[in-house]
C-alpha cells in the first residue's frame, strides 16, 4: 500500500491530484476544511481507502497533533511508499504591503508557509529510519521567482517554501533512508484562486486584466490535467530531490 497525504484535497488542484491517485493499492489521507463528495464516491467505487481530516491549516499550533492522527492510519511495517503533497494555499491578502491587514498577512503565512514546514517536520519525524520511498512535493509558483505588484505575501511565501524544501533536502541527503523533497510550479490552474484574482481591483493587483484574458482565451490549465502530471511526477524517476521545476 502506498500512502498519500494531500493538503487542500477537496477542490482545485488538490482534488485533481487525488482523483488521479485513486487506486485500490493507494490510501489517500486528505487534509482540508471540507470534503469532496466526488472524491469520496470515486474512491469507494474503485475500492480505494480514503480519509478526510477536516482541519484549518491557519491553526498551525495544532498541526503536530493533526500529523499524529494522520500517521495512525499508516501501516509503517507494510508501506510501499509514503508521500506528502503540500498543496493547500491562499492568495489573500492581495494589495500593496501597507494596505494588507496584519491578521491577514499572518494567516497567509500560516497556511502557505508555516503549515507546510510543520507538516514536513512531522512527516520526517514519523518516517525516520523507514526504508520505504518517502517523498515530499511542495506546490510552488512562478511567483516564487518573479515579483508581482500586490502579491507581496504570495511571492514571499512561495519563495520561502522553495528554499525550505532545499534546506530539507540538504539535511536529509546523508541520512541512511532520506526523505526526498521537490518543488513544482504547476502553471496557471483554473481554480477558485483564479476567480479571486480576477475579482481584485486594478489598484490592488495591476496585472488583473492579464488573468482575465487568460480565462477568456481558455488558456488556464484544468485541475485534472495538472493533477495527472503531478501524479506521474510524484511516482516517477523524474522526481529529483532538491530541485524546483515548472510543469509547463
Structure description:
- By secondary structure, this protein is of the alpha/beta class.
- The chain has one domain: Rossmann fold.
- Helices cover 42% and strands 16% of the residues.
- It is built from 8 helices and 7 strands; from the N terminus they run βαβαβαβαβαβαααβ.
- It has a 7-stranded parallel beta sheet, sandwiched between helices.
- α1 crosses α8 and α4 runs parallel beside α5.
What keyword list fits this structure?
248 residues; 7-stranded parallel sheet; globular
The name CATH uses for the topology is Rossmann fold
Largest sheet, strands/sense/barrel: 7 strands, parallel
* Portion in helices: 40-55%
Total of DSSP H or I helical runs spanning 4+ residues: 8
Rg, alpha carbons:
18 Å
* CATH level-two architecture: 3-Layer(aba) Sandwich
How far apart lie the N and C ends? 31 Å
Gross morphology is globular
Average predicted confidence as pLDDT: 94
CATH superfamily: NAD(P)-binding Rossmann-like Domain
Strand order in the sheet with the most strands: 3-2-1-4-5-6-7
- Share in β-strands: 15-25%
Number of strands: 7
Which structural category fits the helices and strands?
A: alpha/beta
Residue runs with pLDDT of under 50 for 5 or more positions: none
What letter string, H or E per element, gives the SSE order? Answer: EHEHEHEHEHEHHHE
CATH class: Alpha Beta
How many structural units, i.e. domains? 1
Amino acid at each position: 500500500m502506498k500512502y498519500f497525504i494531500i493538503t487542500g484535497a477537496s477542490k482545485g488542484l488538490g482534488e485533481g491530484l487525488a482523483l488521479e491517485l485513486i487506486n485500490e493499492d493507494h490510501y489517500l489521507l486528505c487534509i482540508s476544511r471540507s470534503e469532496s463528495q466526488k472524491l469520496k464516491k470515486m474512491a469507494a467505487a474503485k475500492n480505494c481507502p480514503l480519509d478526510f481530516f477536516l482541519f484549518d491549516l491557519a491553526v498551525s499550533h495544532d498541526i503536530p497533533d493533526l500529523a499524529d492522527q494522520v500517521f495512525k492510519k499508516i501501516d509503517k511495517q507494510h508501506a510501499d511508499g509514503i508521500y506528502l503533497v503540500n498543496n493547500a494555499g491562499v492568495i489573500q491578502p492581495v494589495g500593496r504591503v501597507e494596505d494588507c491587514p496584519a491578521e491577514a498577512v499572518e494567516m497567509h503565512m500560516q497556511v502557505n508557509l508555516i503549515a507546510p514546514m510543520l507538516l514536513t517536520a512531522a512527516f520526517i519525524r514519523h518516517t525516520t529510519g523507514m526504508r520505504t520511498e518517502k517523498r515530499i512535493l511542495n506546490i510552488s509558483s512562478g511567483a516564487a521567482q518573479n515579483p508581482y505588484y500586490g502579491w507581496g505575501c504570495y511571492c514571499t511565501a512561495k519563495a520561502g517554501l522553495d528554499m525550505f524544501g532545499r534546506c530539507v533536502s540538504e539535511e536529509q541527503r546523508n541520512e541512511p533512508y532520506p526523505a526526498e523533497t521537490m518543488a513544482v510550479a504547476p502553471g496557471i490552474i483554473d481554480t477558485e484562486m483564479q476567480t479571486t484574482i480576477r475579482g481584485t481591483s486594478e489598484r490592488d493587483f495591476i496585472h488583473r486584466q492579464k488573468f482575465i484574458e487568460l480565462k477568456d482565451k481558455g488558456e488556464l490549465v484544468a485541475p485534472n490535467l495538472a493533477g495527472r502530471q503531478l501524479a506521474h511526477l510524484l511516482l516517477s524517476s523524474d522526481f529529483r530531490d532538491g530541485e524546483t521545476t515548472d510543469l509547463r
